[in-house]
Amino acid sequence: MSKKLILDVLKKTRSSSKIINKQEELKSESENDNDSITSKYFDIKRKRKRNSVKIQSDTKTIDEETKSKINEINTESNPHEHNAVDDKIKKRKSIQSENESNTETINNVINKGTNSSINEVNTESKPETCETINNKIKNPIETVVNPNKWMPQNWEVMLENIRKMRSNETAPVDSMGCHKCSDPNADPRISRYQSLIALMLSSQTKDQVTHAAMQRLNTYGCTPEIIMNTPDDVLEQLIYPVGFRKKKVQYIKKASKILIEEYKSDIPRTLEDLCKLPGVGPKMGHICMRIAWNEVSGIGVDTHVHRICNRISWVRKRTKTPEETRMDLEEWLPKHLWCDVNHLLVGFGQEICLPRFPKCESCLNKDICPSSTIKNKK
Ligand code: SF4
C-alpha cells in the first residue's frame, strides 16, 4: 500500500470517528430532552391532580354554604311570607263566606217579597267592606236593565279596565285618602268627627297634605271640644299648608260648635243634615255618609270624577259642574257600583287620567276612550 493511500484511509477514519462522536452527542442531548419533557409531563399531571382536588373541595364548600343559605331562607323568611299569605287567604275566605251568607239572607228575604225584611237585613249587621255593602244594597229588581235607559257605550269594559289599572292600589288616595285620616284607635264618635274634618280640609288640597295635617291634628287632639277652643292661628299652623286654611278654620270651628250643641258631639246621621254644616256640600256629604256611617247615599263626585266622566263620556252631554255630573251619573250607573266608583276614579285620575297630560299611552281604555290622544293620533 502506498503512503498516500494510507493517509487517505487515516483521514477517512478520523472523519467517520468525528461523525460517530457527533451522533453520540446528539443522542445524549435528545435523551436529556426526553428526560426533561417526561419530567415536565409528570409535573403538569401532578399539578392538574392537585387542582382537581382543590376544585372538588371548593365545590363541596360552596354546596354546603348554598344548602345552609337555603335552610336559613326556609326557616326564617318563608314562615313570615307564608303567614302573611295564610292570613290573606283566611281574610279573603272570611269575607267570601260573609258575602255568601249575606247574599243568601238577602235572597231569602227577596223570595219572601217583604220590603220590611230588607230593611231589617240592612240594619242588622254593619257591613265593613264595599263588597259587603254592595251585596246588601244589590237588589236584583234594580239590575234589570231598562232598554230605554241611556247607558254610555262600552262603560262596563271601561270600568273593568279601570279596576285592572287600579288593582295595585298605589294611588295617594289608597293610603292617604280621607278614609285613612282618622285615628284607628279612637272612639267611633271621634273617628266619625275626624273623617268629617279630613273631608272639610281635603277640598282643593292633595291627599298627602290633608293626611299629614290630620296626623298633626289627631296628635294635638281632634275632638269637637278641643277644636272649638283652639285659637284660629294655632289651628292654621297645625293644618298648614292646606289650601284655603283661613276659611277652613272658620268652617271647622263653626261646625264643631253645631255638633256639640245639636248632635252631642257626634256628626249628623243624614245627608241633608250633614250638608247643613258650614263648608259641607253634597260631594263631601255622600263621601262622609260612606266613610263615617258606612251608608251609600249617592256618588261622591269631585274634580277627578267630574273630569274623567266627561272624558270617557259617562255623561249624556258635557257637564259643567261636579254636581251636574253626579246627577247624570246617578241616572244610569247601577246602584251597587255607587259605593266604590269615587275611590276608583279618584285614584285613576291621580295616576293615569291626569288633569293635564293624561297618560293615554299606558291606559287600557286608549282604544275605546273618546278622548284618547293615542286613538286620535291614528
Ligand atoms: S285614554 Fe286617556 S283620556 Fe281616556 S281614560 Fe285613558 S287616560 Fe283618560
From TrEMBL:
Sequence ranges of Low complexity compositional bias: 97-111
SUPFAM superfamilies in the record: DNA-glycosylase
Membrane-spanning ranges: none
GO MF terms held by the record: 4 iron, 4 sulfur cluster binding; class I DNA-(apurinic or apyrimidinic site) endonuclease activity; DNA binding; metal ion binding; oxidized pyrimidine nucleobase lesion DNA N-glycosylase activity
Superkingdom of this protein's organism: Eukaryota
Subcellular location: Nucleus; Mitochondrion
Stored InterPro entries: DNA_glycosylase, Endonuclease-III-like_CS2, HhH-GPD_domain, HhH_base_excis_C, HhH_motif, NTH1
EC number(s) recorded for this UniProt protein: 3.2.2.-, 4.2.99.18
Basic and acidic residues bias spans: 78-89
Recorded catalytic activity of this chain's protein: 2'-deoxyribonucleotide-(2'-deoxyribose 5'-phosphate)-2'-deoxyribonucleotide-DNA = a 3'-end 2'-deoxyribonucleotide-(2,3-dehydro-2,3-deoxyribose 5'-phosphate)-DNA + a 5'-end 5'-phospho-2'-deoxyribonucleoside-DNA + H(+)
One of the protein's GO biological processes: base-excision repair, AP site formation
CDD domains linked: ENDO3c
Record keywords, A-Z: 4Fe-4S, DNA damage, DNA repair, Glycosidase, Hydrolase, Iron, Iron-sulfur, Lyase, Metal-binding, Mitochondrion, Nucleus, Transit peptide
HAMAP family according to UniProt: Endonuclease_III_Nth
PANTHER family: ENDONUCLEASE III-LIKE PROTEIN 1
Task of the protein: Bifunctional DNA N-glycosylase with associated apurinic/apyrimidinic (AP) lyase function that catalyzes the first step in base excision repair (BER), the primary repair pathway for the repair of oxidative DNA damage. The DNA N-glycosylase activity releases the damaged DNA base from DNA by cleaving the N-glycosidic bond, leaving an AP site. The AP lyase activity cleaves the phosphodiester bond 3' to the AP site by a beta-elimination. Primarily recognizes and repairs oxidative base damage of pyrimidines.
Protein known as: Endonuclease III homolog
Lineage: Eukaryota, Metazoa, Ecdysozoa, Arthropoda, Hexapoda
